[in-house]
Amino acid sequence: MMNYLPAIEYETAPAPTASVIWLHGLGADGNDFRPIVPELKLPAEPGIRFIFPHAPSIPVTVNNGYVMPAWYDILEMDIDRKVDAEQLNASADKITALIDREIERGIASERIVIAGFSQGGAVAYQTALSYPKPLAGRKAVKTLTEMGYEPEYLTYPMEHSVSLQEIQDISRFLQGWLKR
Predict the structure, then answer these.
(1) pLDDT tens for residues 98-121?
(2) What is the pTM of this model?
(3) Measuring CA to CA, which residue among 114, 119, 115 is closest to residue 84?
(4) Residues 123-167: pLDDT tens digits?
(5) pLDDT score, position 1
(6) Which Gene3D superfamilies would you find in this protein's record (predicted)?
């Protein structure tokens, strides 16, 4: 039996036909983005299963070794931002296991979005770009354009957080994707 990351699951309707695996940032947990789901104002159908996994608690070097939820250790915060690549890949493998479980539950890979905030975003990219099957949500501008996707780059006038406009844009993206 596979040992999956602990996670919060929320279904917008019975028998979902799509999944969003949404990764939190450094120091947070899966509860961080759960309250945003109602703010997305998604249609009742088709149903979406939101999965908010919890990162393990590990010592984080740049935070003086403080133990906190983290997808990987950050070794240095200089311009090159050195990270523990082995831990990053291990976290991506755990997210891959969640994707595989969603497929086993009957969700097509093309109906799975991988999303992440900050450190969770790095793991989401690592996972999505290395996953062997097509996923609905891969967002790396040049790479994706060459693969036939139509990426959209948006910026928001804010600090390291999430804004209402960003939530509305996520909702618009998900609603457009659900119509495909």
Answers:
(1) 999 999 999 999 999 998 888 998
(2) 0.79
(3) 119
(4) 998 998 889 998 886 543 344 444 455 666 566 666 666 777 777
(5) 61
(6) alpha/beta hydrolase (3.40.50.1820)
Instruction: Write the single-letter amino acid at 1.
Output: M
Asked if 38 contacts 80 with a C-beta cutoff of 8 angstroms, the reply is no
Tokens at 15, concatenated:
């028998």
Q: Is the pLDDT of residue 32 over 50?
A: yes
DSSP-assigned letters across all residues of 49-95: EEEEEPPPEEEEGGGTTEEEE-SS-B---STT--B-HHHHHHHHHHH
> Pairing mode, if any, of strands 7-11 and 66-69?
unpaired
Per-position DSSP letters for 26-53, written without gaps between them: TT--GGGTTTHHHHT---SSS-EEEEEE
Domain extent listing, the chain: 7-57+84-178
Class of domain 7-57+84-178: alpha beta
Residue from 93, 23, 87, 73 nearest 53 by CA: 23
